[in-house]
């Protein structure tokens, strides 16, 4: 039987590493870094958002986690995130997965999931 996406991401430990790397990638990405810089003064908030993002990925990939963060529209409402910013964030996701040796099929699955969320995140 094929391994679940959760297993292919390396389970809880693999996902934690991916989310840590993703935040670093966002902070180095000129298109979106300004959105995340203010959080550097709030390590408690960063920890909470990271934990939510791990649970979000865990829940979406078939792991035992249960996402208890806000809905995507609630988390991003009022930010006026542009299509360009959304594309930059997706690029960070794909580059981070590749850097963590996640196979191409799994990367394509995540690209599909993330792309489907665009209407819940952009222009709110
Ligand atoms: C690619 C699709 C995206 C997904 C799957 C996603 C997912 C998430 C998740 C799960 C959270 C945590 C929500 C919570 O703690 O309740 C979050 C928060 C956040 N996201 Fe996104 N996001 C995406 C795109 C973006 C983009 C494009 C930006 C900005 C350029 C962005 C900026 C933020 C910020 C600043 C927060 C923290 C909000 C706060 O705590 O006030 N996100 N996102």
Structural notes for this entry:
Keywords: Heme, Iron, Metal-binding, Transport. Its cofactor is heme. The structure is a single chain. The protein has 124 residues and is mainly α. The chain has one domain (5-121): Globins (Globin-like, Orthogonal Bundle), CATH 1.10.490.10. It is 67% helix and 0% strand. It contains eight helices and no strands. Helix 2 packs across helix 6. It starts with a helix and ends with a helix. Protoporphyrin IX containing FE binds next to helix 3, helix 4, helix 5 and helix 6.
Give the tally of β-strands. 0
Bound molecules: protoporphyrin IX containing FE
User: What summary fits the major beta sheet?
Assistant: none
CATH-scheme architecture: Orthogonal Bundle
Low-confidence parts: none
Count the helices. How many?
8
Content of β-strand: under 5%
| Share of helical residues | 55-70%
Mean pLDDT across all residues, rounded? 97
CATH superfamily: Globins
What is the overall silhouette?
Answer: globular
Protein name: Group 1 truncated hemoglobin
Cofactor: heme
Keywords: Heme, Iron, Metal-binding, Transport
Organism: Ciceribacter thiooxidans
Briefly characterize the structure.
Helices cover 67% and strands 0% of the residues. It has helices at 5-8, 11-28, 33-36, 43-60, 72-76, 83-99, 104-116, 118-121.
Descriptive key words:
124 residues; Globin-like; 8 helices
